[in-house]
Amino acid sequence: MENNTMEDTKSRSSREAVPTAIAKEILIQLDSIRQQQLLILMQLLQISSSSDFTPDPTHFGLPLSTIEELQCLEETLKNPEEKKNLTVLLGMVGGMTLKNTVGQVLKRAMNTSLARLIKSVVLDAVRRNALTKDSTEEETELLITRCLQFASDRDGGRSQRAKRQTT
């Protein structure tokens, strides 16, 4: 009988350990969520205190639907204050993952027909080149992505960034 009591105690303590481990994991996750919420709140306060800008989606004519609107926005964004304002506006789009957030920002910035038009122009231009006329759409899309990825390095961007880091 003493042997049964010992086994019951071991069984009970192992059953109790499982909920305790789960409870610890839940507490860790709750703490992580609490820290993330605090960080988000701090960022929101920083944005609201650093700018008197009240985001107005119509100010920039978003989502863009034509090349002309894109060119107009390009001119507008030469003004650093306007660029900052658009950044704040698009930063409010949100998203749960990086992929989702990027997609939401791009959808807010330009409509599907403009995005398709730009993609179509690039694909057609690539296919007009005799040396690249047989490239696949997938290959071209990948290279468009890479080109956009390294856009900040062009036209002296890399050297300007290096200068800022050394000062």
Short description:
The protein is mostly helical.
Question: Which structural traits does this protein have?
Answer:
167 residues; 0% strand; mainly alpha; single chain
Care to describe what's here?
There is one protein chain. With 167 residues, this protein is mostly helical. It has a domain at 1-50. The chain has seven helices and no strands. It is extended, with a radius of gyration of 27 Å. The termini are far apart. The mean pLDDT is 82.
**Strand fraction:** under 5%
Mean pLDDT, as a whole number?
Answer: 82
Q: What is the CA-based Rg, rounded?
A: 27 Å
Indicate the low-confidence ranges by residue numbers: none
List the helices and strands in order.
HHHHHHH
Please give the alpha-carbon distance between the first and last residues: 78 Å
Structural class: mainly alpha
The percentage helix is: over 70%
- Annotation field: number of helices: 7
Largest sheet, in brief, is:
none
Number of E-state strands? 0
What general form does the structure show? Answer: extended
What is the topological layout?
Blueprint: H1 2-50, H2 67-76, H3 80-91, H4 98-109, H5 112-128, H6 137-149, H7 157-166
Helix pairs in contact: 5-6
